[in-house]
Amino acid sequence: FSTEKGNLAQVRHVVLVLSGKGGVGKSTLTTELALALRQAGKKVGILDVDLCGPSIPRMLSVGRQEVHQCDAGWVPVYTDAHKSLALMSIGFLLENPDDAVIWRGPKKTALIGQFVSDVAWGELDYLLVDTPPGTSDEHLAVVESLRKHRVDGAILVTTPQAVSTGDVRREIAFCKKTGLRVLGIVENMSGFVCPHCSECTNIFSKGGGEELAKLTDSPFLGCVPLDPQLSSSLEEGRDFLQAFPDSATFGAINQIAHAVMTSIAERG
Ligand SMILES: Nc1ncnc2c1ncn2[C@@H]1O[C@H](COP(=O)(O)OP(=O)(O)OP(=O)(O)O)[C@@H](O)[C@H]1O
User: Which residues bind ATP (predicted)?
Assistant: First the structure.
């Protein structure tokens, strides 16, 4: 642990999950990676700072919760009796989640700054921070608020067409400018897994994530296929990793979770 005081003092590793644009599966990956890390015996927290689309509470089937305060700050919501997966979503604090859509930058920045440092996590192995899409004031607010604590790095989520779009490259430039280490790139929605025969077909081009990783000299963490069983599990708030332990998608997610742990451990 670091010698700092405060709510992140007992958090061993902090990882940001970023994407250049919305809808590429950033919240999905955050949720599944958290579940995979928990399956590997780790204590995990998710901080959902996606002000305009907090979707993780639904994915983890905890819905809208009333969060409580203790002396140290906001008490996160635990998804299980063992308290091995804790979640704090900015959505819990908003009376009406649609309100934030019209907030101006400074109001969002102030709320995020306070939010990041005010959650009483207790002891955690990994804290995954799900950020809004793009590179905005909100991201800077997250990075600034976490600066006191050592952030291990960022996972960048992209789709197979990554190379043809500039948004992930902007994301990488953001990491460089803010001194965030890129732990690696994940290609999501990489091929379609047929629910009948489990065969994987490449609907879009494939390999954009890997190519981008090479071009930008970043590690490639792996591909997750477009899997209807994954989206329906998320929709129903079911733990996909427990429901489909034999699926190729499970294997892919697990492999990425282990690659993240290794990358953090190796770089210390
Ligand atoms: N590998 C996948 N297979 C099937 N469905 C997926 C996969 N990844 C994501 N999805 C689905 O795609 C939709 C968008 O995913 P998600 O909400 O995770 O994206 P996001 O990047 O977090 O979006 P935003 O930043 O706008 O919140 C969801 O309905 C999710 O269930």
Answer: 20-27
Q: Is 24 in the pocket of ligand 1 (CB under 6 A)?
A: yes
Ligand 1 centroid from CA 188, angstroms: 9
Residue 116 Cβ contacting ligand 1 at under 6 Å? no
d(CA 144, ligand 1 centre) in Å: 27
What does the pLDDT look like over 216-242, one tens digit per residue?
Answer: 888 999 999 999 999 999 988 888 989
Query: Which residues participate in the annotated binding site for ATP?
Result: 20-27
Tell me the CA–centroid distance for residue 72 and ligand 1, in Å. Answer: 33
Task: Please indicate, yes or no, if residue 5 is contained in any of the structural domains.
Answer: no
Q: Residue 124 is part of a domain; what is its CATH number?
A: 3.40.50.300
Q: Are the C-beta atoms of residues 259 and 178 closer than 8 Å to each other?
A: no
Q: What is the dihedral of CA 98, 49, 256, 238, to 10 degrees?
A: -50
Domain, as residue range, for 108: 11-266
Q: What is the pLDDT of residues 135-153, one digit of tens each?
A: 777 788 888 888 777 799 9
Count of structural domains within the chain = 1
pTM attached to this predicted model: 0.91
